[in-house]
Amino acid sequence: MSMLVDPFQRRIEYVRISVTDRCDLRCFYCMPEGFRGFEEPEDWLTHDEIERVARAFTSMGVRRIRLTGGEPLVRKNLTGLAARLAALPDLEDLSLSTNATRLARHASELRQAGVSRINVSLDSLRPEVFQRITKGKLEKVLAGLMAAKEAGITPVKINMVVMKGVNDDEVESMVEFCLEHGFTLRFIETMPVGDTGRNATDYYVDLGEVRQRLARHFDLIPGAMPGGGPARYVRVAGTEMNIGFITPLSQHFCDTCNRVRLSVDGTLFLCLGQEDRFELRPLLRDGISDAGLEEAIRTAISLKPEKHEFREKPEQVVRFMSMTGG
Ligand SMILES: C[S@@+](CC[C@H](N)C(=O)[O-])C[C@H]1O[C@@H](n2cnc3c(N)ncnc32)[C@H](O)[C@@H]1O
Ligand code: SF4
Fold first, then answer.
1. Under a CB-based contact definition with an 8 Å cutoff, are residues 71 and 26 in contact?
2. Cα(246) to centroid of ligand 1, in Å?
3. Does the beta carbon of 326 sit less than 6 angstroms from any atom of ligand 1?
4. Which of 44, 78, 90, 135 is deepest in the core (most CB within 10 A)?
């Protein structure tokens, strides 16, 4: 088996699969409030098609898959899809990114289906601020988080997009919350993805500042988390808690990028911060062979750009984050 290696000698071993571009929330940095331009159901990859693409990737060395969206739990029978992917013989790790509004109902069955790790977006612990950011109800998310904890999913990672004057006064209380519940916490910088993301960069906070602020309240020591993701971690001394900083703007991490993204309509996006893409759906529906599919994926990987240009060309990415799932 030959591995997937891009033109910059980076091995691709991680695929993020967006199972829907729809969502029951409207985080203002992600999707516009009245947005209706969703993909039509006939253009969604079916579970069979998603499994086929995932199998092809795993046969070429991909070991980790994350299900994302939009909100993945709005797609019917996500648990069934998760179980099929978890059963792929070469897959080592199946995870999920969710806003957790529907997690209370599904946490236990997802765990049984083989979802080992969950990332949950949570930008505020104040109901009114949460509502302002997402248009949704905080209590549902908290119920989902507690269900994940009870179901024994570990780690649960909280993703908080830090925004000046919106929620940046909550970074300490979010650390306390995660300490109390045994969650990992990751802070994220706003990214200029779509008009929504570009507008949100008005609230941009350099996470280096957040780290310095936290160091005044907590004893932070160097930390690490398995998984080879983009976050840089510290640990709160005397605890098991890791805090990650995802800093695509202030310190980019493109030289170690190991991933590509599949959108619900079967488009492979080669970089979160560029528009380079390759469409798999027409090939899948034209009856491409397994060998042909592997060749197509290799061609796609050969298009992977070296790096994002969020700083140099913030206007570049026109799609919303909800299309590729972050
Ligand atoms: C697009 S969501 C998809 C999965 C799920 N709905 C969720 O919210 O976790 C994935 C992640 O992207 C982040 N995100 C969306 N738009 C962003 C932006 N403009 N800048 C930074 N992060 C963003 C969200 O906060 C979330 O953590
Ligand atoms: S960040 Fe996630 S929860 Fe928020 S609107 Fe985007 S897809 Fe939905």
1. no
2. 12
3. yes
4. 78
The dihedral over CA atoms of 314, 233, 216, 182, expressed in degrees to the nearest 10, equals 120
**CB 97 near ligand 2, within 6 Å:** no
CA–CA separation, 215 and 59 (whole Å): 44
Per-residue pLDDT tens over the stretch 244-302: 999 888 888 899 999 999 999 999 999 999 999 999 999 999 999 999 999 999 999 99
For 76-100, write each residue's pLDDT tens digit.
999 999 999 999 999 999 999 999 9
Distance 188 CA to ligand 1 centre (A): 9
Q: Which atom of ligand 2 is nearest to the CA of 71?
A: 7
Amino acid (1-letter code) at residue 31: M
- Tell whether ligand 2 has an atom less than 6 A from the beta carbon of residue 72: no
Per DSSP, 118 falls in state E
Enter the pTM of the model.
0.96
> Using only C-alpha atoms, what is the Rg of the chain?
19
Question: Which ligand has an atom closest to residue 22 CA?
Answer: 2
Ligand 1 centroid from CA 326, angstroms: 5
Structure letter (DSSP) for residue 4: P
The answer for 165, left when phi > 0, alpha when psi is -120 to 50, beta otherwise, is: left
CA 38 – CA 21 distance, rounded (Å):
6
Residue 294 C-alpha to ligand 2 middle, in angstroms? 31
Cα dihedral 317, 62, 304, 27, rounded to 10, equals 10
The H or E element containing residue 99 is none
